[in-house]
Recover the amino acids of this structure.
């Protein structure tokens, strides 16, 4: 009888010790949350393992997330995934459908997102954007010639218009020369030339006078301009200059003709052509309904593809700028230990109980073995 009591007693003691030891070890992972002291002496094993190593855990988790979980390669695979592509397109289409039911004006919508821009501000921004695009185009093509930039059919058509332009130019010059202003100009130029040509020139100038010189020179010039010889000569000159112009690069032409003031004027004119006032007071659903098919079939897929390409090329740079490792580290360091304990226990409570029971079973087995040893020895 004493033998059985010894067996049961030692098995129970072993089971209790094993179960309590495992339960205490599990609790010491998290508790106590802060160091405990007896006087000025810190009690060993306080705080618990995880609170004590929280900073190191945070650093290791940051490294693990960046190096093995949220990697640029993994993010790029997700972005380039066809299913993700379709999900983004579907979401954007739903947003467009919601906008199609929006009864607000464009101006109301801008004010709703804290962008209450007036027509003047929008026109100024549009002009600034257009000017920026002009400058970007000029910088990108500054070493290109007009011959390489202009389409071949434009160059071919331009040659056909040279005779017409020559006729127009000749008629305008003849019109000026035949006018009173042109006549006076010819008279002054002839008198000035003869006045500096010695005695004979002075004599002719004094004899005919400014008006007399103009009356004799003006018809001769006009008659020559109307001749075929003058017409062909003018065509040849224009073709020659046009060929030279085609071989000039954009940078050279910009230095001659395209001033900053000209760019601003062009940008202002183009921005002024946009009916911004009408657009601001147009209802959103009117615009969306009018262009919904184009937006859904062409604009959205094109924008999503552009976004995919951009993110694919710059995802590593973007992720480095997000400082994910520091973000995870800071979040884990600031995470309250009791919340972390609740999360872990909530997920693995059953498994932790089984570990406690396993400790009790192992303790009982050890107690049984000890009981055998004690009986054999006594």
């Amino acid at each position: 009888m004493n033998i059985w009591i010894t067996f049961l007693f030692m098995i129970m003691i072993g089971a209790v010790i094993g179960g309590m030891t495992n339960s205490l070890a599990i609790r010491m992972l998290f508790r106590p949350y802060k160091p405990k002291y007896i006087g000025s002496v810190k009690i060993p094993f306080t705080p618990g393992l995880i609170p004590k190593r929280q900073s190191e855990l945070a650093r290791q988790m940051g490294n693990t997330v960046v190096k093995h979980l949220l990697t640029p390669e993994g993010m790029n695979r997700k972005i380039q995934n066809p299913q993700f592509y379709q999900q983004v397109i579907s979401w954007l289409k739903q947003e467009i459908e919601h906008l199609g039911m929006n009864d607000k004006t464009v101006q109301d919508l801008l004010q709703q997102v804290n962008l209450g821009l007036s027509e003047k501000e929008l026109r100024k921004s549009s002009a600034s954007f257009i000017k920026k695009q002009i400058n970007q185009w000029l910088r990108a093509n500054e070493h290109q010639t007009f011959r390489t930039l202009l389409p071949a059919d434009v160059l071919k058509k331009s040659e056909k218009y040279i005779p017409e332009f020559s006729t127009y130019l000749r008629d305008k010059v003849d019109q000026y020369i035949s006018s009173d202003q042109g006549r006076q100009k010819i008279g002054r130029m002839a008198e000035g030339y003869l006045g500096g040509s010695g005695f004979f020139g002075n004599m002719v100038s004094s004899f005919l006078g400014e008006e007399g010189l103009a009356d004799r020179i003006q018809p001769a010039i006009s008659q020559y301009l109307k001749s075929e010889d003058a017409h062909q000569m003018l065509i040849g000159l224009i073709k020659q200059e046009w060929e030279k112009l085609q071989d000039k690069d954009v940078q050279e032409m910009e230095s001659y003709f395209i001033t900053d003031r000209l760019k601003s004027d062009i940008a202002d004119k183009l921005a002024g052509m946009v009916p911004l006032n009408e657009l601001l007071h147009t209802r959103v659903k009117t615009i969306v309904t009018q262009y919904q098919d184009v937006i859904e079939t062409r604009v959205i897929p094109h924008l999503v593809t552009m976004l995919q390409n951009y993110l694919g090329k710059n995802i590593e740079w973007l992720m480095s700028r997000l400082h994910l490792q520091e973000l995870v580290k800071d979040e884990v360091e600031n995470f309250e230990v009791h919340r972390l304990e609740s999360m872990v226990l909530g997920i693995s409570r059953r498994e932790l109980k089984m570990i406690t029971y396993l400790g009790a079973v192992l303790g009982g087995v050890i107690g049984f073995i000890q009981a055998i040893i004690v009986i054999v020895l006594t």
Residues 62 and 328 are 5 Å apart (CA to CA). Strands lie at 37-38, 41-42.
